[in-house]
Amino acid sequence: MLKFSGIDEARLKASWVSSAEAPELVHEFTSFIKELRELGPSPLRADYRRELV
Amino acid sequence: MIDVIRDKVKELLDSGEIKGFLGLVRKNGHIAPHLFQKGDDLGAMSLGDDKVAGDARYPLNKFLINLAKAYPEETFAVLVRGCDDRGLQTLYTWNQLNPKKVVPVGITCPQELADACECLKPFPAVITAGECAQPGTPRSVAAVDALVMSERFSYWMDEFVKCIKCYGCSNVCPMCFCNECTLKCDDLVKGGELPPEIPVFHHTRAMHMVGRCIDCGLCEEACPSNIPLRTLYKKVGSIMEEQFDFTTGAVRGQRSPLNKIDFAEGRK
Ligand code: SF4
Ligand code: SF4
């Protein structure tokens, strides 16, 4: 669906990590944050309402 | 076609097999849903063709759910097109209607409507009246797929930004039957903003239509902002087809892969 809407799929990530696996969880977070930083700011942050004047 | 339907309905009502027939009536210049009961005049009955074929369709199954709740012992007949029939099959699998209490009265859609809807099956499983049209050719999803990512993004954002959060799309949807709606939950979709958070609002609805949307197109017709909602849900449907070989409502008694509990052997 993201791809169909023109949004980079790499911006969404689902991982299954048990609560007993703290190091894995930390690894998932840090690596995903790194990936997101590389992708840059999200296009969804902009205001898509049109200029009024 | 309508005479065949009138005769069928009269027969069902006279025999006492059904308590009422949920169909359409032409009254005061408008076509509207109506429950016909024994002894009623069937003369003003309509099949939903006002100026062009099928331009006055309603989510009759949605009203049928309410009727069934109020009169659980009674059996009702309902007017169904191909999409409504897929809807009935799906509502049975989600336990919203009891197939033993529903008598579908099926009509086919003409070719022009099938083409406009890009409908893959413009007729119900059991046809009371009408000739089967050819399936429509899918175009709308392919047209978006043909765009590059940045064009897709601006296409959808320009559409979604028009949303006035009227909830017409979910109010009209025959497959929207939850009592509590995610789209009305402040923690999930922030309230008090127009347009509602985009694309979250529309993507949430799209995800919730997985295994439910029967591609009737009523949402897109109802949307006052003309947002091509159906294209979005058609895409959802095509993903279900590719990934799970599942078309919502197409096969009698088949549950959506998301609505399936495979009990371990031996368990009742
Ligand atoms: S086409 Fe729209 S109104 Fe019809 S079932 Fe799908 S989401 Fe609901
Ligand atoms: S019907 Fe259209 S305008 Fe109304 S809430 Fe749905 S998408 Fe938004």
Describe this protein with a few key phrases.
heterodimer; A: mainly alpha; B: alpha/beta; 2 domains; binds iron/sulfur cluster
Account of the protein in words:
The complex is a heterodimer of chains A (53) and B (268). Chain A has 53 residues and is mainly α. Chain A has a domain at 22-53. Chain A contains 1 helix and no strands. The longest helix of chain A has 18 residues, at 22-39. Chain B has 268 residues and is an alpha/beta fold. Chain B folds into 2 domains: 2-117, no CATH class; 140-244, no CATH class. Chain B is 36% helix and 10% strand. Chain B is built from 10 helices and 5 strands. Chain B has helices at residues 2-15, 60-70, 82-93, 111-117, 140-145, 149-160, 168-172, 200-208, 218-222, 229-244, and strands at 20-27, 30-36, 45-46, 76-80, 102-106. In chain B, strands 1, 2, 3, 4 and 5 form a 5-stranded mixed sheet that branches. The longest helix of chain B has 16 residues, at 229-244. Chain B is globular, with a radius of gyration of 19 Å. The A-B interface holds A 1, 3-8, 43-44, 48-50 and B 144-145, 147, 149-158, 160-161, 195, 198-199, 203, 206-207, 232, 235-236, 239. Bound molecules: iron/sulfur cluster (2 copies). One iron/sulfur cluster (SF4) binds at residues 163-169, 222-225, 227, 229 of chain B.
